[in-house]
Amino acid sequence: MSPIKILSIDGGGIRGVIPALILSEIEKRTGKKITELFDLLAGTSTGGIIAVGLNVNDPETGAAYSAQKIAGLYELNGKTIFKKRSFFSSVGGLAEEAFQHEGLEEVLKSYFGDAELKDSHSALLVTSYDIEQRKPFYFLSREARMKPDTENFLMRDIARSTSAAPTYFEPHWMPWAENGHLTLVDGGVFANNPSVLAYTEAINLMRLREFENSFGEPQPAEDANPAESRSGVGSRDFTAGLPEYMAPDQAPDFFMVSLGTGQACRPYPYEKAKGWGMVQWVQPIIDILMQGVSESVHYQMQYLLPPTRDGRQHYYRINPAMPESCSEMSNVSEENMKALQGVAREVIEQESGTIDAICQVLLS
Fold it and tell me: Are 260 and 19 in contact (CB under 8 A)?
């Protein structure tokens, strides 16, 4: 049985141009679209936008968007996405989100139109968080196909929800047949690096693959018990309809590529931080939490998917060091966009051997 190939993409605002350009290089070297190479795409925030975009058809070609086109979403529309509000409060804008959500929604609609989750080219997992239910919310193509009446969503709404970063954009409110409505913010508040979530979803896909090979496609369970829900929101039970896991002769084979948006190197000196209050901590704590979560998940994945005894790598992560001068997630100046493209070119050159190794596995 061939391995399940997983792509996981971190959050990071405009820095999403870096993983998008790395993916463009992979497409260039393989001659194939990303959704032809990977079985499962997972993303958070800007990584969620990329994962969604790669699973939508480009209206110009009728085929899945290329990674280069998705990189262009950032390069051509950064100033529309991060359009600042025209007024600020007396405490430095802390009473309002920093950016207008209308610009982001305009760009997402122009790229993704009315594409639906159930029609994604690959399996897809995108994270978000419901601030009224106070639970994570996962957009899953697997669920959308099995339960289209409640689990299917417009791709543009998914992208808007996963990227509704607190202090940057207002939450995304939308109706939901299952529980009235959703009030969603950026999945980065709990899973800026969605690799472990992607790994667990890949296990579910492996279980389904084994079951289908033996018995045909499973059907949704009609008597799922809401009290036993493991999904995190309302009565969504992602285990309903899945076969019981039967361990194969050997451990299921997975291959994961995890892409970061750059590891920020900006220090927060003790002499400054020791006197900070709530206002001064708002922006630094977002940066610290996002990077801390991403790197702790990377630590976990090295143990979950270690190299095998024959030397085969099952897990690669590319996450370049980010110069302090271009670490801001919303800096869309021409100078910064060129700097981010330069970071992408540099990491592609430095990690060329790794990218070749990745491409070899993806084409096998």
Answer: yes
CA dihedral in degrees (327, 331, 333, 334; nearest 10)? 40
CA–CA dist 245, 137 (Å, integer):
24
pLDDT in tens, 291-304: 888 889 999 999 99
SS3 108: helix
Residue 41 main-chain phi, psi, to 5 deg: -115, 135
- Cα distance between the two ends of the chain: 12
Q: What is the DSSP letter of 350?
A: H
Residue-wise pLDDT for 58-82, tens only, equals 999 999 999 999 999 999 988 888 8
pLDDT, tens digit (0-9, with 9 covering 90-100), for 152-194: 999 999 999 999 888 788 999 999 988 899 999 999 999 999 9
- pTM, two decimals, is 0.87
Helix (H) or strand (E) run with residue 270 in it = helix 270-273
Residue (of 209, 202, 203, 207) closest to 243 by Cα position: 207
Provide the percentage of residues in the chain whose pLDDT is more than 90.
59
Contacts 24+ apart (CB under 8 A), 95-99: 97/167, 97/168, 97/169, 97/170, 98/167, 98/168, 98/330, 99/168, 99/169, 99/330
Q: Tell me if 258 sits within 8 A of 193, measured CB to CB.
A: yes
Place of tokens 């892409």: 259
Helix (H) or strand (E) holding 214: helix 195-215
Instruction: Tell how far CA 164 is from the center of its chain.
Output: 13
**Which amino acid belongs to residue 293?**
V
What digits encode the pLDDT tens for the residues 202-245? Answer: 999 988 877 666 666 666 555 443 333 434 444 466 555 555 54
CA distances in angstroms from 247 to 214, 230, 243, 244, 307, listed in the order given: 14, 21, 12, 10, 20
Q: From CA 253, how far away is CA 292, in angstroms rounded?
A: 28
Nearest CA to 263 among 290, 302, 297, 291? 291
